[in-house]
Structures are given as C-alpha cells and as structure tokens.
Write a structure and sequence with these properties.
mainly beta, 5% helix, elongated
C-alpha cells in the first residue's frame, strides 16, 4: 500500500507541475512529445534529458517551433528548468556552458556547440573583466553562421588561439577603446604570439563577415591583427588594431579574390604595415578612419593576378615612413589627410591608372617611379591654388582654358614646364612639347597664358615648322551716344596690343553724331568690334580720337577684366601710331640668340645672329 500511495502522490505532483507550467506559458498550444530537428526547437530540455511524454512540450503558434518545458532525466526525475540548449540565442556565461574556472574560449565554444546547425547568436557579454583565451574560438562553420557578442573585458590570447570566422560570422564588441585599455570597451590582446586575432577557418573564400567595435593589440614581430586573406563582401566597422611590430590588416595573397570588402571608421596601425593589399586584393573600400605605420601605412603588392581598384576616402595617415606605396592599378586615394609622413605617396614601377587627389597631395609629395604616364595626382593646398601634378596624358577635345572669372587675362596666369618637382623645386625641363595630333597639323598659341619654357617645339605632320600668324587690322570700333539725334560728328580709331607685345595697325575710322558734347553725363562709349577668336589674343586697346595722332585712352581692357574707355570730354594726348603690324613677330629676348636654319637639300646649315653693330651675321654649322 505504501508503494501505491507513493506512486499516486508522485502522479499528483507531476500533474500540478504540468498545470503550473501551462499557466506560465500562455499563448502556447499543447503538443505531443515527438522527435524534432534542432531547427524546430525553440526551447529545449537540458543535456541528457527528454521531454515528458505527451504533456512535456508545447508548440509556439507564432513560429510553429516546440518548447520542451517539462523534462525528465535518465533516473526518471522531472526537471522543469527552462534552458537554451539548442535555442537560437545562447548565453556563454550560463554555468551550463561555462563551469567555474573555465577559460573564455571554453565557455564560448560550449555555447556555440549548443546552437542549432542553422546558426544563431552567442551572447558572451556576461563574461566581463579579465578573460583568458587559451584556444581558438570556432565561429560555427560555412553552413552554421554565428553571431558573437563580446564582453566589456580584456581578453588575453595565448599561442594558437584565434577567432576563426566562416561565412556569415558576426563578431561585435562593446567599443574599440580608441587604441587604449579602458574599462568600457572590448580589448583582445595577443602578447608575443604570432597568431592572428582573426583568421578564416575555411579553406577558400569566406564572405559576409562582420567585425565591429573592439580593439586588437598584437605585440609580436610580424604578427597580423586581422587576416582577411580570402574575405569577400565583408565589413569591419569602428575596429582598432595595433600590431606593434607587425601588420594591422592583411587582404589577399592567394589566387582567391579578397574583394568587395568595406572598412568604415577603423584604426589600423602596425610597426611594419598598417594595411597590406596583396595579390588579388581588389575593389576594397576604406571610408575615413586612420591608417598609420612606422614603416608603410598602406602597402599594395601586385602579384601574378594583380591588385587594384582599391579606394581610400578621407583616410588619416600620420607619423609614417611611407603613406601609400602603390604597385597596382586603378586605385583611388581621395582627400587624404597627411601629416608627418616622410614619403606621402609612392608609385612603384608599372603602377598604372591610379588617381590621387585632395588636400594631402602637395608639390613633391608623390614619388613617381611608375615609368608611364597613366597615373593622375592633384592637390589643392598650394599658395597658387591647385597643383596639377599629373604625368598622365590628358585628352582634351577642344581647348584648355587658363584663367577666367575675375582674374581672366591676368598676366601671371602661366603655363610652366615644371622640372624637379619631387625635390620641391621648379627647375624647368629642357623642353615642353605642345603637340596637336589632328589634321591639318597646326598649333595656335592663342590667349593670355604665359608660356615659360626653355625650348618650345612645334611639330607638324610632315616637317618641323614654326609659324606665326598676325592678328590683322582691327575693324572700326562700335560707338554709342547716351541719346540719339543730330549734332556734332566724332571720329575714333583703335590700336590693339597682344599679350606677347605685338601691335596692330590702327583700325579704320568710326564716326558718330551725338546731340550732346561728350561729358560725364553724356558719354560716348567706344567698344572694339573684335573680341573673340584670334582677337582674344589682344590684351589691351588704345582708343584714338579725331585721327590716329591723338589718343583718348591707353591700354584699355574689355571683356572679363574690363576697365573700358568712354569719351567724357577728357583731353587727348599726342600719339604715334604703329606703322606695321607686329603681332606676328617672333622675339628672342636673350642677347646673342639666333635662328638655326637648313638649306632646301638639307646639306647646309647656318646660324643667323645679330652682331653688336646691328648687322646680320651668318655662321655655317654642322647640320643636325
């Protein structure tokens, strides 16, 4: 009887517990105990426990997943403790996965093992303080993505311990400490070990990884903080990496593409390299943040498969030996901040199609050893405005305009042949070639930009010719009175002066009848009729009144830099008009300069100069 009574009492206790459980889990429909895959379980029994038959589980109608809330162990004891074994989210600090005395890697790996094969989240934020990591943390697999939340803690790694990521791995800390050990962030230390803090656990491309908000510190020589050798379509956000004697971040280096990754607001610093872009590192984008190194901040090595189309937008580089050492193709460095960098930019032999532009690009900041003309670099912080430091050939369909706006015809707007710009100087090269490659072959030097070169070479398609063209005689000026009507007739001429110092002949006369005598209140305006085309080479105009022997204004300007000239009744001055059109003359300003000419058959050559008496002198010379 005692056995029967005891059994009956056990049954009553079980029934009461079941009722209590049902009250707790509202909104759940009853279901029978049966086998499920891990993906079908929302709340599972503890290890070595089974659902109580028929009444020990329910179904969540919201997602059709099972909650196994009443369980029994191998000894038949009922256990109603709710656990997360096999659930989507698991706490790594739960004593079930993190027994007393366990290291950080053991607790996290145990929690990951409890995640179903479809993947889930491990919350390690309860493991705060100083944590020891004696083995690698395996972040699931390519088919089991794991999202890991790191604690506010200092996690010290020993040898052979890394975070091994796979497709879809997500690791997020509580802050990156701005490169220091603080109490409100996640710090991962690798002291005197060469193992990378983060490395792929897969054998090929690993994609869609996300790392954010923590600080990695490596102290060993050659150590790499984050190894993204084969990462694709992944992101690193607001992560600080300091590798004292090694490299903060590495991408590429195999035949697999390390491509389409994005780095936002990160701080990469290394004793040897900040960021290394190796073979097959392509189309990676860096937005803001800092990349520093006592050696080379950004190093790109182009191997057999090439590395290129990597972009850096507004990245800060300071206190480095070399800022960017580029050996690839079509990289873009836009608006970099450069401070205390010995060689800000270096283009290695064969580098091609790279674009460097912005505030940090200064005269002499680019060491160009590319050996080609396919790279472009330009800065905007020189005293003269933008510094166009581009060996790249620019294709222009019609014209290049120098000057304009309020400074448009300024004689200081000049085209220079810059010599040794890498040494910060402006020593001219031997020549500056200006070639027109169309047909017919001609080059018109038209406009107001000074051409400052030691030799000007103009080559046409069939011969080497140097030709000049006169501007010609200007048309009569356009005149206007302040009001119309008959009156006194006034006559005006104009004479033009080109930027190179040539003078036109006086124009034909222009006459006008005005009802009022010219005065400040009744001006007569005089405007040259020719201001465009070849006439834009005319720098200023003399305004003549009555005849060509009396001037009203000298060196008047019209157009963008207009000073103009009007007849307001001012007195005229005596004037000697040019007797010939000198706008097509060629001038040699250096004393003793001459012309080298060749006979029609090419057999005889001579130098034509002028002696001190003003006589022309011809000296035979060896033909060139």
């Amino acid at each position: 009887m005692r056995k029967v009574t005891s059994y009956a009492l056990d049954v009553v206790v079980i029934l009461i517990m079941i009722v209590i459980g049902m009250i707790i889990i509202l909104g759940l429909s009853e279901g029978q105990a049966k086998g499920q895959t891990p993906a079908q379980i929302e709340l599972a029994c503890p290890a070595n426990n089974s659902p109580l038959p028929y009444v020990g589980q329910t179904v969540d109608v919201a997602n059709s997943k099972y909650r196994q809330w009443a369980c029994y162990d191998r000894n038949g004891r009922v256990n109603m403790t709710f656990t997360n074994l096999g659930a989507t989210t698991v706490s790594a600090s739960d004593p079930e996965y993190c027994p007393s005395g366990s290291t950080f890697d053991v607790c996290v790996n145990n929690a990951i093992a409890a995640i179903p094969s479809s993947g889930g989240t491990v919350d390690a934020r309860g493991l705060s303080g100083n944590q020891q990591m004696n083995g690698s943390i395996i972040l699931g697999s390519d088919s089991k993505p794991i999202m890991l939340y790191l604690p506010t803690a200092i996690i010290t790694r020993t040898a052979n311990s890394s975070f091994k990521y796979y497709n879809g791995s997500w690791v997020e800390g509580t802050g990156n400490c701005n490169g220091g050990y603080y109490s409100n962030c996640t710090v991962i230390i690798g002291s005197l070990i060469a193992d990378s803090a983060f490395v792929s656990g897969a054998g090929s491309n690993t994609g869609y990884i996300h790392l954010a908000n923590f600080y990695v510190h490596q102290t060993a020589a050659t150590a790499v903080g984050i190894d993204f050798t084969t990462a694709i379509k992944s992101t690193i956000d607001y992560v600080s990496v300091l590798s004292d004697a090694g490299t903060a971040l590495t991408l590429g280096g195999t035949d697999s593409c390390a491509c389409y990754n994005e780095f936002r607001g990160d701080d990469f610093r290394g004793g040897l390299y900040g960021v290394k872009l190796l073979d097959t590192a392509n189309q990676n984008n860096f937005y803001g943040g800092t990349i520093w190194s006592g050696g080379t901040a950004v190093y790109q090595e182009s191997g057999a498969n090439g590395s290129g189309v990597n972009n850096f937008y507004g990245v800060d580089t300071e206190n480095s030996g070399i800022g960017y050492d580029i050996d690839g193709y079509s990289d873009m460095i836009l608006n970099p901040y450069i401070e205390s960098v010995t060689t800000p930019f270096k283009l290695e032999s064969g580098a091609t199609g790279n674009w460097i532009q912005g505030y940090g690009v200064k005269v002499g900041s680019v060491m160009d050893s590319s050996g080609n003309t396919q790279n472009f670099y330009m800065g905007f912080d020189t005293p003269d405005g933008s510094s166009g430091l581009f060996p790249r050939q620019l294709a222009v369909s019609k014209k290049i305009l120098i000057g304009g706006g309020s400074w448009g015809n300024n004689p200081t707007d000049q085209l220079y042949s810059l010599g040794n710009i890498f040494a910060g100087g402006y020593t001219p090269f031997d020549d500056l070639s200006i070639n027109y490659e169309g047909f017919p072959q001609s080059y018109g030097y038209l406009g107001h930009a000074g051409l400052d070169v030691s030799r000007l070479v103009s080559r046409d398609l069939y011969a080497w010719n140097f030709t000049t063209q006169q501007v010609g005689q200007p048309s009569a000026p356009t005149l206007a009175c302040d009001s119309s009507g008959s009156g006194i007739t006034y006559t005006y001429h104009i004479v033009g002066h080109t930027r190179s110092g040539g003078d036109t002949l006086p124009s034909s006369a222009a006459t006008i009848q005005c009802p009022n005598i010219p005065s400040a209140g009744h001006p007569v305006t005089i405007t040259p009729s020719n201001l465009t085309g070849i006439w834009s080479d005319v720098w200023s105009w003399d305004i003549l009144k009555g005849d060509t022997a009396h001037s009203l204004c000298l060196s008047a300007q019209f157009g963008a830099n207009a000073s103009n000239c009007s007849d307001i009744g001012q007195a005229t001055s005596g004037y000697t008009a040019p007797s010939r059109d000198s706008t097509g003359d060629a001038k040699y300003n250096n004393a003793g300069s001459g012309f080298h000419i060749k006979s029609p058959d090419g057999a005889h050559c001579a130098l034509i100069t002028l002696d001190n008496a003003g006589a022309i002198k011809t000296t035979s010379e060896t033909c060139w």
